[in-house]
Design goal:
Blueprint lengths: L4 H26 L4 H32 L5 H18 L1
Helix pairs in contact: 1-2, 2-3
Protein name: Formaldehyde-responsive transcriptional repressor FrmR
Pfam family, one: Trns_repr_metal
GO molecular function: DNA binding; metal ion binding
């Protein structure tokens, strides 16, 4: 869950964008649009969901783990973990 008003606004913006993408996909399917265009929309939706997941997960990790990290090395380890997760979700 986002921990600040700025993070909450960013997450809600992503969710609203996803809603629009899903509605466009639904319309494309109803209109029997070419398969390659539908697949492209699905790939875009997957990317948007992964971005949403990465953002919320990063917020959660920073709030929970970095706040309790005692040393600079531990904080850097949290940053490294977040970077790896973001790379995986791309």
């Amino acid at each position: 869950m986002p921990h600040s008003p700025k993070e909450k606004k960013a997450v809600l913006t992503r969710v609203r964008k996803l809603k629009g993408q899903l509605l466009a996909l639904e319309t494309a399917l109803e209109d029997e649009v070419e398969c390659s265009a539908v697949l492209q929309q699905i790939a875009a939706i997957r990317g948007a969901v992964n971005g949403l997941m990465a953002g919320v997960l990063e917020s959660h990790l920073r709030e929970g783990l970095q706040a309790s990290a005692a040393t600079q090395s531990q904080k850097e380890s949290v940053d490294d973990a977040i970077s790896l997760i973001r790379t995986y979700l791309r």
